Amino acid sequence: MRHGETAWNATQRIQGQVDEPLNERGRWQAARLAAALRTEGLTRVYSSDLARARATAAAVAQAAGLHAVHTEAALRERAFGSFEGLTYAEVEARWPDDVRRWRAREPGFAPGGGEAPEVFYARCVPAAAAIAARHPGEVVALVAHGGVLDCLYRAATGAALQAPRTWQLGNASINRLLWNGEGFALVGWNDDAHLQPEG
After folding, report:
1. Are 58 and 33 in contact (CB under 8 A)?
2. Domain membership of residue 165 as a residue range
3. Is the pLDDT of residue 197 over 90?
4. Separation CA 47–CA 140 (nearest Å)
5. Could you list the active site residues?
6. Angle at 148 between CA 25 and CA 72, to 5 degrees
7. Which CATH number do you get for residue 143?
8. pTM of the model
9. Does the residue 183 lie in any domain?
C-alpha cells in the first residue's frame, strides 16, 4: 500500500525523503484502508520509517489486531535531493535540463544530492523480496511510497526502469503481489474501492 495523503501530495510538492505527516484526508484514507484490510488475515505489517507510511501502517496493524509495525529504512521513498520541497513547476524553472532527464527516466540520473532510479530500485526491491522470503505462506502488508510501489510493479511485470509509467499509484490504494520464492507476480493493482463514496 501507498501511504495516505499529505499536504505536499495535495499541493504536488516533491516529498522524497522529507518526513511529511499525513494530512486530515490522509488520516481518513488510512482508516478506510485499515477497515478494508481488517479481514484479510494479515500476519505482519511492514513500513517505511517515514512518518506518513508509519502512521498509515499503524492504522492497518491496529485494525488487524497486530501490535507491531516493523520499520525498514530501505523502503523509504527515493531521495530527490535538490528537488525536494519544490513543486514540479519550480523544479522545471530552475533546472530544465535536469527535468528533461528526469522525465526521460534515465536510470542513472539523480538530481543534486539525490538518488538515481537504478540505485533506488536496487535498494527497495531486494528489501521487499527479503521481507516476503522471511514469511512464506503469510499475508504481509507493506506500506511504503509511490516510488517504491512503482519499482515493485516493474519487478513484477518486467517493465524497464526507463519505460513510461502507465499505471496508477493512488494514496492508500491496495496493490497485491504474490511472492513465488524467486520474484513477484502481479495479482491486483491500485484498488481504491474502499476510498469511494458509499452508496
Report:
1. no
2. 7-195
3. no
4. 11
5. 3, 77
6. 90
7. 3.40.50.1240
8. 0.97
9. yes
